[in-house]
Amino acid sequence: MSKMRAACIQMRSGVDVAPNISMADGLVREAVGQGAKFIATPEMTNLLDIRPGMARPKIVQEADDRTLAAMRALAAELGVWLLLGSIAVTVDGEDRFANRSFLIAPDGTIRARYDKIHMFDVEVGDGQSYRESRAYRPGETAALAETDFGKVGMTICYDVRFPHLYRQLAQAGASILTVPAAFTRVTGEAHWHVLLRARAIETGCFVVAPAQGGKHEDGRETFGHSLIISPWGEILAEADHAEPGIIWADIDIEEVETARRRIPSLRNDQDFGLNASGKA
Q: What is the pTM of this model?
């Protein structure tokens, strides 16, 4: 299956899990109604709450997570591939959580998991301090998943600033790169589009980037603008800044090889040293 319709779900997740599940369920069904066969939800689909100590009592182990169970059942009911962009889950033997993405097959089984590798520890100038590593422990392994339409390289949000991850996924065979996100408004306005288009262009992959958008209950503001981008860097679909909803695009995986033949940069890598002395 080289051709299919992909969709991004844009959400505005709140501080309670049940309404977030309901929102995701309705939007996924809407996407399927538009013919989508591969649907992706954003980072932290289950819960967004940066208020000190408020999220912890609502985060459970993967096996007990209501959002994951609901999305697995939904994928099986509708017979579609579903990327649960990420949820927060507890980890045995750890004080910190995992920010974990799941690729769910049309029979409801989990085809792949990915724990976010790069932690968002930054000061972006929006009046809030972000220290993701205080609550979340970084993942250690990249994830490349087989599907019936090609290989999917799984990443999350801040990972997009580390191009070597995407290059390695592409060189390992990825045709689609997923970047579920909750980008801040400040960083999104400056960097969202250019970073995602760059990752598509330099890898020759489709990029599917479902996002959180708007003013959230916990006080943060996310950028929205969910995107689907072609291997040539063209924006195929884009969501409104703030409103929850869906976008979709018809994609042909054969375009990956076409783009890579035109610009064979994945094959043209060269090993090199670094002259740090500044001397000729």
A: 0.95
Task: For residue 250, tell me if it sits in a domain.
Answer: yes
Amino acid in the structure at residue 210: P
Residue 274 lies inside a defined structural domain of this protein: no
Q: Angle CA(182)–CA(146)–CA(245) in degrees, nearest 5?
A: 35
In the chain, the number of structural domains is: 1
In a domain, 277, yes or no: no
Q: What is the CATH number of the domain that holds 99?
A: 3.60.110.10
> How many Å separate Cα 10 from the centre of its chain?
11
Residue pair 127/102 in contact by the 8 Å Cβ criterion: no
pLDDT, tens digit, for every residue of 114-171? 999 999 888 777 666 678 998 999 999 999 999 999 999 999 999 999 999 999 999 9
Kindly list the catalytic residues: 43, 116, 157
Q: Please report, rounded to a whole number, the percentage of residues in the chain having pLDDT higher than 70.
A: 97
